[in-house]
Amino acid sequence: MLANGVNTAGSSAAWQKPPISYLKCNVDVATFREQREVGYGMILRNDRGEFVIARTSTTAGLITVKEGEPLALLHAIEWVKEKGYHGVMSEVDSKLVADAVKSVALDFSEFGSIIRICKQILKDEANFLVRRSSRKSMKLHIY
User: Fold this and answer.
1) Nearest to 19 by CA among 93, 94, 90, 113
2) Beta strands at 51-60 and 37-45: parallel, antiparallel or unpaired
């Protein structure tokens, strides 16, 4: 798909199920330059691939791709926790984000600060997993 001349299509890889009895939360971010907004989207499906619930939101301002992906994850973690769901596997497009959530290394950048907040929330959530999407070609959606 093209939006304002930017390729926004990812790979057509099939959706993969979460572990049995888990929900899967797919997370994504988009920037809207002209409106100076960032959009977040998340969808929960059960281990049979059936729709459970979805959410979208926007925030004023522009951020980098590096900051946008962990912010989308943070929004998803807070939303899932607020809804009272347990046993959730969250899937993000960014290998950097997925690896950072699992890492013990300290990162004092803005990116690292967002990751630390995610980790702080997740330390009390034993049944919340984060992994990278298996889709091969991922691009930030820019409109």
Assistant:
1) 90
2) antiparallel
